[in-house]
Specification:
Elements (H helix, E strand, L loop, with lengths): L5 E5 L23 H11 L4 E6 L4 H7 L10 E6 L21 H6 L9 E5 L2 E2 L2 H12 L7 E8 L10 E8 L5 E12 L5 E3 L6 E3 L4 E9 L2 H16 L10 H10 L4 E6 L5 E2 L6 H13 L10
Parallel strand pairs: 1-2, 1-4, 2-3, 6-12
Antiparallel strand pairs: 4-11, 5-13, 6-11, 7-8, 7-11, 8-9, 9-10
Length: 304
């Protein structure tokens, strides 16, 4: 039985490096945000609902912009909240903690409203229509399956910034196209020589152009929430850095794969990823969207 998957948008992070509520920042010709393009692509790919993970601090302004009416009633809209003290039973906020608990804690916030296969995206990444179609097709045929997850991997060379280093989850993939490992590399850039390297280990380590990397475009079934809640408690106990430690999606995914609980299919996409890691990245994204409009991939006005 085909199901309409849900899109879970992680929008609680305010984009500290970028310096504003960049999720709301206009990049299209009529001030459309990256989120608008994500939802437009998701509707075309057969998604039936979008759930935003936000914070109460900017709930009013966010709701005013991203209401169901904005999207012409073409997709259901729900809001859930990520706050420091929204923790599983037995966990309490340690003194001095101000940072959010990370991307996988944000996913857990949607446990009560997501009952179907779902895709997770960052609010401030432009993934491309092909990526939504790829993951939407996979999720829609999962039915009542459990522990069958997926992600869309991008070629590393399509995800770099010309304005500084980037962090990427470098993926190991087996012959059946299942994920074997995901290692976060935090300082990746293209050198003047043309070689892509990462600097995490002190000396430059080369990476191939087509290295599959994660851009936080994952697909899960609802049982993932149960795994997350259970493991968060263990992670919380075992993680000594309670002031800054973060519970990321790859943290959970790597555990489930390592202990054989789940399989995660790596779906490859030829889509060009665009993001706004740095303020200086924005003009390139605006130009890329304009070019796609000229090529007929998007209408000039998304929601008219």
């Amino acid at each position: 039985m085909m199901v309409k998957p849900t899109l879970l948008v992680l929008a609680a992070g305010m984009g500290s490096r970028y310096g504003s509520l960049k999720q709301m920042d206009g990049v299209g010709p009529n001030n459309e945000a990256i989120i608008d393009y994500s939802i437009y692509d998701a509707i075309r790919a057969g998604f039936g609902k979008v759930v935003f993970v936000i914070r109460h601090a900017f709930e009013k302004e966010f709701r005013e912009v991203f209401s169901k009416e904005r999207f012409g009633g073409k997709i259901e809209v729900e809001f859930v909240f990520q706050e420091l003290d929204y923790l599983p039973e037995g966990c309490t906020v340690p003194e001095g903690r101000v940072k959010p608990w990370g991307t996988n804690h944000a996913v857990l916030m949607a446990k009560e409203v997501v009952k179907e296969p779902f895709a997770v995206i960052n609010a401030d990444d432009f993934y491309g229509a092909e990526a939504y179609q790829t993951i939407g097709d996979y999720l829609s045929q999962l039915g009542d399956s459990t522990d069958r997850y997926c992600m869309v991997a991008y070629n590393l060379n399509l995800t770099l910034s010309e304005n500084g280093t980037v962090s990427r989850g470098v993926c190991g993939v087996d012959e059946e196209q299942n994920l074997t490992s995901m290692v976060e590399r935090t300082k990746i850039e293209r050198m003047p020589s043309g070689q892509i390297v990462f600097h995490d280990l002190g000396e430059d380590q080369p990476l191939e152009e087509d290295t599959p990397v994660s851009m936080n475009l994952f697909g899960f079934t609802p049982d993932y929430f149960t795994h997350t809640e259970n493991y968060f408690k263990q992670w919380f106990k075992e993680n000594p850095d309670h002031i800054k430690g973060e519970f990321y999606i790859p943290t959970m995914v790597n555990k489930l794969i390592a202990d054989g609980t789940s399989k995660l299919r790596v779906l490859r996409s030829a889509a060009q990823w665009h993001g706004v890691t740095y303020k200086e990245d924005k003009p390139a994204l605006v130009a890329a969207i304009q070019k796609m409009i000229e090529e007929g991939k998007y209408p000039a006005q998304l929601w008219k």
